[in-house]
């Protein structure tokens, strides 16, 4: 028996109300993680000027971070499988804290890049273990709601964390912003240590005759997850370019992105309310709204009002994407919850980094107007996988 499985705990999975403290801690920690990952997006010009490097080079702080997570999620999760789960999460948050303070004080771009690499390695573990942890806090038939509530933290990071860090950077400088983020990370670390109950690790499915079927279902969910993220980020990475080309004033871009990002919370709440009752229907609706929104962006562009309205619809749909795929993957029982989390985390970050690269190729080749159409093809492909794979995406939660 591993150390993680022997972790002292009196915790018994129950309902969402009973797990509220732990879910709140995970949601706050996820908010901090997403804000840390994406803070350089809004601060990119300031970091570039401050360190006297080009903006494309500075942009690698985000791209390389995503690819590090994609590459390290599975191996680091497996390597740390014997460590107590709670201690591992708290430790990951402590590493985020150290990473951010190094960035804030770094004298050169090389030091910043090294600190970001440290944060990326931490994120590879944190995001993977969080998925399994949230599912372990409640009874299996409530996993969808638990994961939906935790992903509200991620949606809030997109909606508020990144815009607020950008505004703070413009007001007091990017280094001070990372110092503030350091304090928020430290607070999340303390609250997680205080509020999160210890749960046992392990949980690998039995090596019975259905193991191959379960693994195939898990691989199917992971593939659909990668396609959805590829499609989304091939367009979303360049949302500012699209909005400016559609006539949004530069001064209005920040508020527009804040509004569009905040609408993700609606999608996250929708997923939390429905995934434990109608998971397949919820997944289909989610991807249909995302695909419809991206297609509408392409059709409305370059009209200002139509493009913004379509982007709002798309954002609502994408707010549910993380929860629907995390829940579907956990319920395949194709591996232990932590390995499942690592696969979902890895494929999502392949989509983030690969989508940005694909969108850049389309943008440079066919032009701005073609970007949404490239993205919608990939999201529709993810939807087709879901429609065909009834075992991986069942109509109702399967009793375990």
UniProtKB/TrEMBL annotation:
Keyword hit for Cell membrane: yes
Main location: membrane
Recorded topology in the membrane: Multi-pass membrane protein
Gene3D superfamilies: MFS general substrate transporter like domains
Domain Major facilitator superfamily (MFS) profile: 22-393
Domain of life: Bacteria
Pfam families: MFS_1
Membrane spanning stretches: 21-47, 59-80, 87-111, 117-135, 147-172, 178-196, 217-235, 241-263, 284-302, 308-330, 342-363, 369-389
Keyword Glycosyltransferase among record annotations: no
PROSITE patterns, A to Z: MFS
Subcellular location: Cell membrane
PANTHER family in UniProt: CHLORAMPHENICOL EFFLUX PUMP RV0191 (PTHR43124:SF3), PURINE EFFLUX PUMP PBUE (PTHR43124)
Protein name, UniProt field: MFS transporter
Species: Promicromonospora umidemergens
């Amino acid at each position: 028996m591993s150390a993680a499985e022997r972790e002292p705990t009196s915790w018994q999975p129950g309902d969402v109300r009973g797990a509220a403290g732990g879910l709140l801690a995970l949601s706050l920690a996820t908010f901090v993680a997403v804000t840390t990952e994406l803070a350089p997006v809004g601060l990119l010009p300031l970091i570039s000027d401050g360190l006297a490097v080009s903006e494309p080079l500075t942009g690698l702080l985000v791209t390389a971070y995503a690819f590090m997570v994609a590459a390290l999620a599975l191996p680091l999760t497996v390597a740390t499988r014997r460590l107590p789960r709670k201690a591992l999460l708290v430790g990951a948050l402590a590493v985020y804290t150290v990473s951010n303070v190094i960035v804030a004080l770094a004298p050169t771009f090389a030091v910043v890049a090294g600190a970001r690499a440290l944060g990326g390695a931490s994120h590879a573990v944190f995001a993977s273990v969080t998925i399994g942890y949230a599912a372990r806090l409640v009874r299996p038939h409530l996993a969808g709601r638990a994961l939906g509530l935790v992903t509200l933290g991620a949606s809030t990071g997109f909606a508020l964390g990144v815009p607020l860090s950008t505004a703070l950077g413009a007001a007091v400088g990017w280094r001070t912003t990372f110092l503030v983020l350091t304090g928020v990370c430290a607070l999340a670390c303390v609250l997680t240590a205080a509020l999160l109950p210890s749960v046992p690790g392990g949980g690998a499915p039995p090596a019975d005759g259905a193991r191959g079927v379960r693994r195939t279902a898990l691989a199917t969910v992971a593939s659909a997850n990668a396609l959805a993220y590829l499609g989304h980020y091939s367009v979303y990475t360049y949302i500012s370019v699209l909005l400016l080309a559609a006539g949004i004033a530069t001064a209005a871009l920040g508020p527009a992105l804040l509004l569009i990002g905040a609408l993700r919370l609606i999608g996250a709440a929708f997923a939390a309310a429905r995934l434990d009752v109608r998971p397949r229907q919820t997944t289909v609706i989610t991807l249909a709204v995302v695909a419809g929104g991206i297609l509408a962006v392409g059709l409305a562009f370059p009209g200002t009002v139509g493009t913004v309205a379509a982007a709002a619809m798309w954002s609502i749909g994408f707010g549910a994407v993380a929860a629907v795929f995390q829940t579907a993957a956990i319920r395949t029982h194709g591996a232990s919850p932590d390995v499942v989390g690592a696969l979902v985390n890895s494929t999502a970050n392949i989509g983030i980094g690969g989508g940005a690269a694909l969108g850049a190729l389309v943008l440079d080749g066919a032009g701005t107007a073609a970007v949404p159409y490239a993205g919608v093809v990939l999201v529709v492909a993810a939807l087709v996988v879901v429609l065909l794979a009834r075992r991986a995406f069942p109509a109702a939660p399967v009793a375990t």
